[in-house]
Amino acid sequence: MPLIEEQIHETFANNAESLEGRLLFAVPKKGRLLQAALNLLEGADIQFRRESRLDIALVKNLPIALVFLPAADIPTFVGEGRVSLGITGRDTVAEHAASVVAAKRERAESGQSTPTDEEDLIGCEEVMELGFGSCKLQVQVPEKGQYAKPSDLIGKNIGTSFVHLAADYFAGLEKEAAESNGEKKLKTNIIELSGSVEAACALGVADGIVDLVESGETMKAAGLKPIDTVVSSIAVLVKSKKPSNPQLVNLIASRIRGVITAQQYVLCQYNIRREKLADAAKITPGKRAPTINALEEEGWLAVSSMVEKKKIATVMDELAEAGAADILVLNITNTRY
Fold first, then answer.
1. Listed GO cellular component terms (predicted)?
2. 18-62 pLDDT, tens per residue?
3. What residue ranges define each of the domains in the chain, with the CATH number in brackets?
4. pLDDT in the model for residue 14
5. Contact at 8 Å (CB) between 82 and 4?
6. Helix %, strand %, coil % for the chain, to 5?
7. Residue 50 gets which letter from DSSP?
8. N or C: at which end does the chain have fewer Cβ atoms within 10 angstroms?
9. pLDDT band per the 50, 70, 90 thresholds, residue 112
């Protein structure tokens, strides 16, 4: 993989604008996470224009440069501190972490190096879940095949693009089987595939696969069925352990957190008689507490409270039964808390 500095130099070779002093923020350049990530950036008021064929875009209103990279590569760039922030899937973060551990283990076993304090600064830190991109990294086998449980695949051929997670998963199964049966531990063969993993079984390349599944329709069409889940994934915001501008990282995280909260909640407003407030407040406790103001009409109160969007219809029904009147629901575009 080329170094990020080389990519930056190539991209901006004929551009007069400088990246000096800008925080680098990695964003998926294509695939299932791209559009949702762009919507999130727009909600956080991160303003930029991406020129065609360019994988770096300068943000207009903040000292940030967006770097568009394959989602699977983002944990590496963030983990090595070459970019400070990134949006990617938890599955790719887990794969990167497993690869770092494997590399350290190989170096230690070969006697090439010993652990250093600098190694503690390598890796990603998850900042928050982003609420989109849900999927599962699953073990899949032919629907009409002979394999019914994960342990049936020990010693077989497994196709995957998540070689380190798959290796760790089957190493655990191998150890378990050896301890319970007292037999010699079989070694499962992990075959690295970069695409169309679901075709590996049908083409005779693998006995089973480890691959990402969203709806499961693609796997069904390929004649496969799931027998276990290795990792449950969702899009996450990750940061380097040594970001170039920690204060700006915190600002961006705060903005994104506000956008996500606004997507999940609505503002519910209603009027209620004072003696019925306690019952109504139990229905709408808010994130911290409801906001309560007295009305001009004696004995009546106005209440405002954040309510989970998915629960609002039930909440409105319960408020009406509790004696609330003039119930309104307002969308929230952004928030801080």
1. cytoplasm
2. 678 899 999 999 888 999 999 999 999 999 988 877 889 999 999
3. 4-132+235-244 (3.40.190.10), 135-232 (3.40.190.10), 265-331 (3.30.70.120)
4. 44
5. yes
6. 35, 30, 35
7. -
8. C
9. low
Which residues share a beta bridge with 330?
A: 267
Indicate the residue type of 143: E
Confidence class of residue 16 from pLDDT cuts 50, 70 and 90?
very low
Of 269, 331, 333, which Cα lies nearest the Cα of 301? 269
pLDDT confidence band for 184 (50 / 70 / 90)? low
Q: What pLDDT, on the 0 to 100 scale, is given for residue 105?
A: 80
**Residue type at position 121:** L
* Two tokens, residue 183: 């037999």
Q: How many angstroms separate the CA atoms of 335 and 101, rounded?
A: 38
Return the residue matching tokens 């992990």. Answer: 190
Give the count of alpha carbons within 13 A of 54, CB side only: 18
CA angle 40, 97, 7 (to 5 degrees): 60
**243: which 2 tokens?**
């970001």
H-type helices in the chain, by residue range? 4-11, 34-43, 74-79, 90-110, 163-181, 217-221, 246-264, 277-283, 312-321
Helix-then-strand count for the chain, H and E: 9, 15
214, 32 Cβ separation under 8 angstroms:
yes
Eight-state DSSP code of residue 257? H
Distance, in Å, from the CA atom of 237 to the CA atom of 335, rounded to the nearest integer, reads 18
How far apart are the C-alpha atoms of 242 and 204, rounded to whole Å?
A: 45
- The amino acid that residue 257 corresponds to is R
CA–CA separation, 305 and 288 (whole Å):
9
CA distance 160 to 190: 7
| Spatial separation of the C-alpha atoms in residues 316 and 323, rounded to whole Å | 11
C-beta neighbour count of 202 within 10 angstroms: 12
Do residues 83 and 25 touch, judged by C-beta distance below 8 A? yes
